[in-house]
Amino acid sequence: MRIEGKYIFNAPLLAVWDHLQSPEAIARCIPGCDRFEPAGETQFDVEMNVKVAAIRGKYSGTVAVSDISYLETYTMTVKGRGTGGNIKATGILNFTAIDNHTEVSVSGEAQVTGLIARVGQRIMTGASRMLMNQFFTCMSSHMEPDANILPNGDQELK
Questions:
Q1: Each residue's pLDDT tens digit, 91-108
Q2: Quick check: helix, strand or coil at residue 134?
Q3: Is residue 54 classed as helix, strand or coil in its secondary structure?
Q4: CB neighbour burial string for 61-75, b if at least 16 within 10 angstroms, e if fewer
Q5: Among the residues of 5-153, which ranges form H helices?
Q6: Do residues 82 and 57 touch, judged by C-beta distance below 8 A?
Q7: In angstroms, how far is the first alpha carbon of the chain from the final one?
Q8: SS3 114
Q9: pLDDT tens digits for 107-120?
């Protein structure tokens, strides 16, 4: 399943980059995150409770950041295993300074197996977009007081 999104922060590139690299900020903003602990320099063990459609599950896994090109791009990989099945998602985050704003474009793939995969691709696509939007809205809310959804579904975070 393909995952994509574009988020515009009303903040300079360096501030957005630092915030999206902060383990504390990431832990605070992963939807349903119960535990987020270092397991290496750029890897973390995570436990979270996630609800997709009518299926709720507790997942344990890892979040890893790799392929870091300072102030330009990095890859975030999330792997989890739990009561509803297995999840593996990899997203490439690209950062672009635009005037006094920063655009973060995300593109990647998610694979699910087990009970959650049976709910169907349309529901999974919507659920993954919702979770990604929650994450970026949360990130923005800790940098800026407001977050608005643009008509095309992208996030303008200001």
A1: 999 999 998 899 999 999
A2: helix
A3: coil
A4: bebbbeeeeeeeebe
A5: 13-21, 23-29, 121-141
A6: yes
A7: 29
A8: coil
A9: 999 888 877 667 66
